[in-house]
Amino acid sequence: MAAASTGFPVWCISCVLVSLLAHVATSAAEGNSSLTCVDGIYEHGGGICCLCGAGQYLKEHCTTSEQYGECELCTRNTYRSLPNSLDSCEPCTSCSQPNANLVVKQACTSAIDAKCQCKKDHYCSSGTETCIICNPCKECPKGIKVACTSNNNTVCNEIEGKPHIGLIMGIVAILVIGLGLLALFYIRKRYQRRHQIPSVPSAADPEMQHLAAPVVDLQPHLSDIADIIGWRDMQVVALRSRMENATIESCRLDHPHNSQEQTLQLLQIWVESQGNEASRILIQSLQNSSRRGKAEKVKDILSRS
């Protein structure tokens, strides 16, 4: 009786142990199955392969479904931050570009890219997490209002008296402009006086009454007078008499390359415009334009008539 009472508990304990062992074995099998591709899978050649982990790249695809192929660690200065089936790693970001003013904030590893930051006394104005170029912080001779940060330039104290400086500069600018205008006006007036063509005195002027040149009809002597005066000086005489440029130009175009005929035609028109006092006015005009030698020759011709 005693043996029967002790056998029952042993049998029960044995059954419980067998059940537990079976459950543990099943759980272990399921666990091993779920841990086969811990980083995910990808399709290749009609089968399924496990992705290589972060910091690795795929060298050879798997030959058995749901198994890893040949994965290798990224080489120096390269990385892969995510599980992948790619055949190479990405190059790490460089913080040593010329004139970029960057330093390494976080070194590159096989699974994490490098992070850069501005070096001391520099800031990034791009407003983004990744900065390409850093600029030097502004220097403040009168003191700093807001210090320079990695993303913002220095704000300097306002310079006292700045409005007064602006006012002084404005006054100086006005004075310079005013003096420049006065100088321009003076130069223009001087130029006009130098190049002004004095008017030819009329026959009624007292000075004309005392000229030694006689009042003579010039028509018979036009050819001889034209030879003495010449085209250039005849133009001066015509301009002093306020003759229009168009009339002078017309004479030149009527006889191209023949200055004698040009002079004769212009002299004829000029004599007709001056009337009976043409001889006196012609001599006076030549004298006033520093052509005294030609004026004397014309007087000689007229005195012989």
UniProtKB/TrEMBL annotation:
Phylogenetic lineage: Eukaryota, Metazoa, Chordata, Craniata, Vertebrata
Gene Ontology cellular component terms for the protein in this record: CD95 death-inducing signaling complex; external side of plasma membrane; membrane raft
Entry-linked Pfam families: Death (PF00531), TNFR_c6 (PF00020)
Membrane-spanning parts: 165-187
Residue ranges of every copy of the Death domain listed in the record: 248-302
Organism from which the protein derives: Cyclopterus lumpus (Lumpsucker)
Disulfide bonds: 74-89
Keywords: Apoptosis, Disulfide bond, Glycoprotein, Membrane, Repeat, Signal, Transmembrane, Transmembrane helix
Highest taxon of the lineage: Eukaryota
GO biological process, one term: extrinsic apoptotic signaling pathway in absence of ligand
Keyword Lipoprotein: no
Gene Ontology MF terms in the entry: tumor necrosis factor receptor activity
Protein name stated in the entry: Tumor necrosis factor receptor superfamily member 6
InterPro entries: DEATH-like_dom_sf, Death_dom, TNFR/NGFR_Cys_rich_reg
Keyword tRNA processing on entry: no
Domain TNFR-Cys: 73-116, 117-156
PROSITE patterns assigned: DEATH_DOMAIN, TNFR_NGFR_2
Ranges occupied by TNFR-Cys repeats: 73-116, 117-156
Signal peptide: 1-27
